[in-house]
Amino acid sequence: MTIVDGYEFESKRTHMTRLLRLFVTLLSLPILVGTQLASAQTPVYGYEVIGRFPHEPTAYTQGLRFHDGMMYEGTGRRGQSLLKRYQLEDGQVALSKRLGNRYFGEGIEIVGDRIYQLTWQAHMVFVYDLETFEQLDTFFNPTEGWGLTYDGSQLILSDGSANLYFVDPGNFVTDRKIQVTLDGNPVPSLNELEYIDGEVWANIWQTDFIVRIDPASGKVNALVNLTGLSAQTVRTDPEAVLNGIAYDVEGDRLLVTGKLWSDIFQIRLVDPQ
Ligand SMILES: [Ca+2]
């Protein structure tokens, strides 16, 4: 990729590299996860759907966060990327901000009265006023931007690899990096993130699995197998994969969705067999 005046241009070579990486990921991940599951060293939770809410079917979900009774969502694709605040119950949009056409929006997270939004390959991080979405700040992110969450002191960022970066919200400098492992093997393609009760939960891109990560060691404490959930919503695009975890702390509601899905599901975990 070449950046000219902040614009993102993907060269043919970069595009081929991405396609190759996608192909390898598609081939290896189910095998990796399957092999790991067979070893049974890590508990695998199932799920039960206990609620369903509307999701804008054109929303290419890259960041999902529930805060103070409202849902916040960041979406991707150049020319369509948005930051939105809406009612969970009926999907009614309270506030929406469109990113410049050059940017591919990614993960979002709230720190105090500010909301952060990553871009995929532009190395830009936008910081807005949480109430008005007025842009307050920008930061440089040296990696790709995928998922973003917050542990109460540091932002935690994924970049599509097996790494998580612990970042100072004040200057976006990385303090610490960990590699996420499942039974000793790196787990690539970490995507949307959510910090829940001392663990980092992460979607694994192009799979139906969420991993629950110990943020100190990077070790995967448990898996959540959401196989079958995508079949319960309307999807019309091959890129409409599971992505988006939001935890409503006050209501103790676990909410998940996917890119271009027409539903947000409230789920309850089912204990490992
Ligand atoms: Ca999230």
Structural class estimated from helices and strands: mainly beta
Low-confidence stretches: 1-16, 21-28
How many runs of DSSP E, i.e. beta strands?
24
Annotation field: number of helices: 1
Relative helix content: 10-25%
Order of helices and strands: EEHEEEEEEEEEEEEEEEEEEEEEE
Mean of pLDDT = 89
Question: What name is given to the CATH topology?
Answer: Lipocalin
Radius of gyration: 17 Å
Beta-strand level of the residues, as a percent range? over 45%
Strand order of the largest sheet: 18-19-20-21-3-24-23-22
Give the name of the CATH architecture: Beta Barrel
Q: If you had to describe this structure to a student in words, what would you say it looks like?
A:
There is one protein chain. By secondary structure, the chain is mainly beta. It has one domain: Lipocalin, CATH 2.40.128. It is built from one helix and 24 strands. Strand 14 and strand 15 (about 175-180) form a beta hairpin. It is globular, with a radius of gyration of 17 Å. Bound molecules: calcium ion.
